[in-house]
Write a structure and sequence with these properties.
alpha/beta, TIM Barrel, 11 helices, 9 strands
């Protein structure tokens, strides 16, 4: 599956930090049932790789991505675990050259955006979106660089997501609000499914 096809599946990609393997499958099932099939599992915990394996084997319809991919070794481990795309907080030519798995590189400036365009990328992650200018920055970048489309991530909420999705150069947004810690700790999968369902309708509200 191409990166374009993956990013176009839903308006929001849940960004997940999974601390315990046993929550991976029910969490993913709730998000997919709510209409968000594309899941970014960050490589920030020891449970992340096994969580990907379990979701890939047990959650029908889930499209697994690995986030916080920093090194070729991260890309290899995530791909072996079933990741269908990779997300990095920045751009590394070494990382990009090391893997055939679709990569969404991070950018924060016009210079970095031009760098990924020169490297052949049509999509980038704007990170951290809110601290570096958010909607205003994306509007400014669209003038000189309309050919680059973004998945902004970092500080975006259910309230602000629609403002990003209204922009012509935004294909989707990444958000951590879909799996609030209190709901995960309580195993309240119904609440998480409801949050996902609301997020899946955001593009129509934009």
């Amino acid at each position: 599956m191409t990166l374009h096809a993956i990013l176009s599946k839903a308006p929001v990609i849940p960004v997940l930090v999974i601390d315990a393997v046993d929550i991976a499958v029910p969490l993913a099932r709730a998000l997919v049932a709510g209409g968000l099939p594309v899941l970014e599992i960050t490589l920030r915990t020891p449970a992340a790789i096994e969580a990907m394996r379990r979701i890939g084997g047990e959650v029908e319809g889930a499209i697994i991505g690995a986030g916080t991919v920093l090194r070729p070794a991260d890309a290899e481990a995530a791909t072996r675990a079933g990741a269908q795309f990779l997300v990095s907080p920045g751009y590394s030519a070494t990382l990009a050259a090391s893997t055939p798995t679709p990569l969404l590189p991070g950018v924060a400036t016009a210079t970095e955006a031009m760098t990924v365009l020169d490297a052949g990328f049509a999509f980038a992650k704007l990170f951290p979106a809110e601290p570096i200018g958010g909607v205003s920055l994306l509007k400014a970048l669209n003038g000189p660089l309309p050919q680059l489309r973004f998945c902004p991530t970092g500080g975006i909420s259910s309230t602000t997501a629609k403002d990003y999705l209204a922009l012509p150069n935004v294909v989707c947004v990444g958000g951590s609000w879909l799996a609030p810690k209190a709901a995960v700790d309580a195993r309240d999968w119904g609440q998480i499914e409801a949050l996902a369902a609301a997020a899946s309708r955001l593009r129509g509200a934009a």
